[in-house]
Design goal:
Mean pLDDT: 95
Structural class: alpha/beta
Enzyme class: oxidoreductase
Low-confidence stretches: none
Strand content: 25-35%
EC number: 1.13.11.15
Cofactor: Fe(2+)
Radius of gyration: 20 Å
Organism: Cryobacterium sandaracinum
Protein name: 3,4-dihydroxyphenylacetate 2,3-dioxygenase
Number of strands: 18
């Protein structure tokens, strides 16, 4: 990965449609299957003794999540679908001009996916770009299979990187648009939300030690589906997998719940953000000290949500080294003796929800 400015390639970038799937390594495939299938209800497209291919109920492509048995829990790829077959070659050329390592496989890296290219991007993340993919039954109308907590779509990824501004510029060159960000009065950027489809994001950049994966997010139709998931986890005596929420984000305005899988990979259950598809859609900038940016109701963010994230792998399957963030951390400037947050800016009466409450 680089810490120097990333040049803008002269090559044409690929036309990215959306985030499409994540390929993750898990250390106990049976335990992971129980979590993602038996508890969360994702649909099994196919499986073997070493890997499981899962999808959401409204998906028509082969999978949204791959679970692979391996020695170290990590993310092997964050995959995006492109608009046409030739865009795979455009992605390969674009990253090669940047000097990034690339690997192309005509028959794909995962079952059900055809011609694909994987890259080690300038930030150290393993990205994949593909068009060709097997179609499967879309189960949107199969209410006999869906439960009250049905996960209907893959919504986004979230990446932890030391320099959000650096990553933001590179992703804008790749064709992503910023919808929201968090900054301070000195112009330090703590997070940015980047989209290709017409929602708040397909991926987000969170400032921190990286490259690491913060979370993968699946959507439900409505808020009550998330409440049901919480009730189900309570009934199963699995409430300890709930890391944060349920609540409503300030950023994105979405209702959320964060869970941790058996390996600690973070999964967000997410619903009801807003449309961003107009070309002049305005960027929403949040003050890092606004106590409602991360939770609209002002509830405190648990420290693990800021500090914990999953390793990512290089193209050889080895964990990428993690580099420290040198700019201020969001947790440090908002929590504890050296940080502050407000509910009403310049209001000396803070109420009972102080920003330094954990």
């Amino acid at each position: 990965m680089t810490t120097t400015p990333i040049p803008t390639p002269t090559a044409t970038p690929p036309d990215i449609l959306r985030c499409a799937y994540m390929d993750i390594v898990v250390t106990d495939l049976a335990r992971s299957r129980a979590f993602y299938v038996d508890v969360l209800g994702l649909v099994v497209t196919e499986e073997s003794d070493t890997e499981i291919y899962l999808r959401s109920f409204e998906e028509f492509i082969h999978h949204n999540l791959v679970l692979r048995q391996g020695p170290v829990a990590a993310v092997a790829a964050m995959a995006f679908r492109v608009r046409a077959p030739e865009d795979v070659g455009l992605a390969e050329a674009w990253y090669q001009e940047l000097g990034c390592r690339t690997e192309r496989r005509i028959n794909g890296f995962a079952k059900g996916v055809g011609d694909s290219v994987r890259v080690e991007d300038p930030l150290g993340f393993p990205y994949e770009f593909f068009y060709s993919v097997d179609h499967v039954e879309r189960l949107a109308w199969r209410y006999d299979l869906q439960g009250p907590g049905a996960l209907v779509r893959l919504d986004h990824f979230n990446q932890v990187t030391p320099d959000v501004g650096l990553g933001r510029g590179y992703l804008e060159d790749l064709g992503f648009r910023v919808t929201e960000d968090i900054q301070d009065e000195d112009g330090v950027t703590y997070a940015a939300w980047m989209r290709r489809k017409d929602t708040v994001h397909d991926t987000a950049l969170t400032g921190g030690d990286g490259p690491r994966m913060h979370h993968i997010a699946f959507s439900t139709h409505e808020k009550h589906n998330i409440i049901y998931i919480c009730d189900k986890l309570g009934a199963l005596r699995m409430s300890d997998v709930i890391e944060r929420g349920p609540g409503r984000h300030g950023v994105s305005n979405a209702f959320y719940l964060y869970l941790r899988d058996p390996d600690g990979h973070r999964v967000e259950i997410y619903t009801q953000d807003y449309y961003t598809g107009d070309p002049d859609n305005p960027v929403v900038t949040w003050d890092v000290h606004d106590n409602q940016r991360r939770d609209w109701w002002g509830n405190a963010v648990v420290p693990s949500w800021y500090t914990d994230a999953s390793l990512v792998l290089d193209l050889d399957g080895n964990p990428q080294p993690v580099m420290a963030r040198t700019e201020s951390s969001e947790m440090a400037v908002t929590v504890g003796a050296d940080g502050f947050s407000y509910t009403r800016k310049n209001d000396v009466e803070h109420g009972f929800k102080l920003g330094n409450t954990l």
